[in-house]
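Record pair follows.
FIRST:
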Amino acid sequence: MKVIERYIFLKGLLTFLATLGGTMAIVWVTQVLPRLDLVTSNGQSAGDFMYLASLILPSVVPEVLPFAMAITVAQTFASMNTDSELVVINAAGSSRWIVIKPILILAALASITSFLFANVVDPYSKLEFRRLLASARADLISLVVQEGSFRQIEKDLYIQIGERLPGGDFGRIFLADSRQDGADFIYYAKKGSVVEDGDDKTLVMNDGVVQRKASNGDVSVIHFDSYAFDLSVFAAKSGGGSMYAKDRDLLYLLDPDPSDTAFQKKPQEFRAMLHRRLAEWLYPIVFALIGLAVAADAKSHREGRIHPLVTTLALALLVRWLGFFTGNQAQTSPLFVPLVYAVPLLASAISVWFIATNRTMELPVTWADSLMSWSRRIADRMAFLRIRGGTEPGQGQAS
């Protein structure tokens, strides 16, 4: 690359990394916090929580990359226009390709990264996420349950351990199970322990009774010397079960297992996910083209009706919404499958036409005027509230 191209590429790369880091941090926090109880309630360490949180990142990256690219292009060229750098480049007789080339290289790298994360890294991280939750749930009794406290293992299933004995055994076990319709079970045992057989874990209770109460009020009590309560079912519920289309990698989507129960129930969902995977990795390039069409012309935007970043994001949100809509509709109707590809390709074609004809892609004048009027009303309203609250500089409280 030439010196100017390297300058634009590095300037865009730094902006892209800063934007991507900040955006991912916000999205990551919003995704992690609702899952905090999955680790803390199961007594896992801070390291386990950070590992679990890192497994969420691969699913965030493909969604954030396109918007980070749009912000990067718009902000980079808005800054260069403000500093008259694009005007100087144009006055020196340089072609527009010198400005466009480094951005397209950066967008291509972002698209390749999006493809790898969506089709390789994310499916693996989801499998590992399930395994971690299964391990946390299976270790609940042996590691977490405190002496004398009731803990909920899952809905309608509670346990209390009276004491911990030497060797890892438990004393005075109480277990209440109301999961079965029409009957409630209560288990009492003097002693018990968790027995592991490979990946299977069983709570073995010794010298106790099981009380069964039917829905009609009848109660039966059975004494037992030894009773095994399977814990592996909790691992299956939290970490196993059916793998859905979104959990599969690209190779599996290309050739699904005909015996897969999830595929048998919703085959069109697997086909739709395949087409989404093959189309959505293009969005960083699409959004880069939109940004180039909006902000890459060599003129100052100081007197523009609206900042190019706002225009770029508004158009990008519209295109991405259309992509989500067609992708979701394709899960139920094959007629929408061509539209999954048509949305990014059409948006790219329109952007390329604007770039090739030296036109600037802008929001309609009425839209821009409405946005500016709306933003001014909000600013005026906030200023009024500050003055009314006595927080405006120079305002004091009456004595």
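SECOND:
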Amino acid sequence: MSSPPAASAVIGEIAELGPFFAVQAHPPGVEPPEPWQRITRSLLEARVTGVREWLAAAGGQSPDAVEIRVAASVAHLGLAARLISPALAAAVLHGLVPAPGLADLRWQPVIGGQIPLSLPSDAFTDLSLPAGAFTGGSTVAPTRLADELSSRLLDGPLRELADAMAEFTVSRRILWGNTASAVNGAATMITTTRPDLTARTRAITSRLLERPPLRDASCTGPDGAFRRRSCCLIYRAAPGASGALCGDCVLSR
């Protein structure tokens, strides 16, 4: 029987899928040095403000022209994608479900590009799975992995993140739509980079999207493509709220 791979091996393999999958690891209970920081309320406020300024500058406007909820939704989508991408990759590749609490994560709140993210090293091995359940990623059932991702990731740090971002007047329907979009986006990046993982990736994500709180957040469009049931609101950041719609937006027909 195989043993779960070391955190360094998992991190190295999932990083090959792209920058949104790259993470670092820090010893549990040990505070990594600056510039790593906790994801606190004050830093989330600063991030929403930074995203608001960035969106306003892109449209040649003052920050006041961009609604706070728009900036908060865009900030949330980026953070959700960074949490989901490495977790989904670890599940697909190794049958592991890393799901630390939001307080255990460390980040570097940069604006633009992927957000540097560090997880406790034991997040890759402390899975609360039955003894002997790990026998390699290809043999852990997609249904079981979707269950674990739902209970440990969606109902863990992603719900904590949604609770925090809802305070910026963003509806939870939008926040869970962002989360569903991030799941689909991560799956698309995995299958684009590793076509051999397409069947397994889609088996896991389709089951994950069927579970609450994502069950009502998306659907399959007439063309068979993923479509969310809400809008991330980024179109409203453009002058006159006339920005382009995302390809999976509920408003895009």
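COMMENT: The chain has seven helices and six strands.
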